[in-house]
Amino acid sequence: MSGVENLHSEYVGQLFRSHYGWLCKRLRRHLECSASAEDLASETFVQVLKAPAATPILEPRAFLTTISRRLLFQFWRRRDLERAYLETLIHEEEATTPTLEEQAQMLEALCEIDRLLDGLPARVKATFLLSQVDGLTYPQIASALGISQRSVSDYMAQAIKRCLRLSLERM
Question: Are residues 137 and 79 part of one domain?
């Protein structure tokens, strides 16, 4: 570990000692479970630690609030996806209900798709999901969304380009 990385690590450690309790308390107001609040608070500091070493943070609580709020939104989005998925499973026949491992894999895939599509307009996301998850054809999607088939094609191209770009960036 270089000297700069060591200083950054020590600085984040000091931030942790000074603000972890405060951040946990703040997150508990938004979450039903104190363990989840502690997990999100810890993840907030992990994100700070992963960030490149920078000058000291002038407003550490504002900075930590911004990071934790983003993580909280991701947590809620994942929870909502999980609930929707589990509700769908309830309505399926028992014979076709996937195993717990398959459920976990599908949920992970849904979260990854949600992350890849994050930031795209709602119609682009809907078009992509109707095609890839529901298996609808372009004419069916156009009819369902009240748009032209050309728009469906453009939206699909936009979504696929974004998914490919973000997937390649991760490599």
Answer: no
Q: Which residue has the tokens 């996301």?
A: 125
DSSP per-residue letters across the chain = --HHHHHHHHHHHHHHHHHHHHHHHHHHTT-S-HHHHHHHHHHHHHHHHHSPP-SPPSSHHHHHHHHHHHHHHHHHHHHHHHHHHHHHHHHS-GGGPPPHHHHHHHHHHHHHHHHHHTTS-HHHHHHHHHHHTS---HHHHHHHHT--HHHHHHHHHHHHHHHHHHHHHH-
Which tokens sit at 118?
Answer: 């994050």
- Residue 152 falls inside a structural domain: yes
Same domain, 69 and 147: no
Whole-model pTM? 0.55
- Model pLDDT for residues 32-45, shown as the tens digit of each residue: 888 889 999 999 98
Same structural domain for residues 154 and 123?
yes
Q: Which two tokens stand for residue 36?
A: 């989840």
How high is the pLDDT of residue 65?
93
